[in-house]
Amino acid sequence: MTLYEDPLDEAIGRDSVKVKPWRQRMIYFQRAVGGFMLVKGLIGWAIICGLPLGIPFEEMRMHAQAWTIFFAVIDVVAGVALWLGSAWGATLWLVVVATQISADVVFTERAGILVLLTIVEVVLVAGYVLVRFKVLEEDTK
Fold first, then answer.
1. Which residue has the higher pLDDT, 96 or 60?
2. Which of 5, 52, 71, 92 is most deeply packed, by most CB within 10 A?
3. What's the pLDDT tens digit per position in 108-131?
4. Are 73 and 41 spatial neighbours (Cβ–Cβ below 8 Å)?
5. How far apart are CA 86 and CA 28, in angstroms?
6. CB-based burial, 73-104: b 16+ in 10 Å, e otherwise
């Protein structure tokens, strides 16, 4: 005789859930990317606050200032969403990366560390696609 006669009476919680290996890697990957996005957002806020990471914020043209503020906010939002594993977090992150690439092409005056971070983001997107396919392959087995 088991402790619980009815399976609905069994404990609910972290120990009762079995997570497959690639799903667990996806969780860790999203947390890592979420942390990266939080740091990237904080770099945007550092630029706004005047830390010397390229052209001073006050000397940027108005549209470059607007993009800097936009990415400082949206990077933090995407980072938190990825860290928490929300369903819309990865989608928002992919939209942010696509927007960041187009902003780097259009506004070359924002070059410097942000272009390097965009290249890192593109590599992370490729890693995300690979891990996501592995999760889907694992789920179909």
1. 96
2. 71
3. 765 566 788 889 999 999 999 999
4. yes
5. 13
6. ebbbbbbebbbeeeeebbebbeebbeebbebb
Closest CA to 41 of 6, 17, 77, 85: 77
Condensed to tens digits (0 to 9), the pLDDT of residues 69-88 reads: 999 999 999 999 999 988 89
Q: Give the separation between CA 4 and CA 28, rounded to whole angstroms.
A: 33
Q: For residue 124, what are its two tokens?
A: 């992370």
Joined tokens for residue 99? 């927007």
* Token code pair at residue 89: 């977090």
Longest CA–CA span in the chain (Å) reads: 75
Cβ atoms of residues 7 and 1 within 8 Å: no
CA dist 117 to 26, 67, 97, 104, 137, Å?
Answer: 21, 15, 10, 11, 30
> Is residue 88 classed as helix, strand or coil in its secondary structure?
coil
Report residue 139 as tokens: 């789920």
Distances (CA, A) of 17 to 11, 12, 13, 87, 93: 10, 8, 7, 19, 27
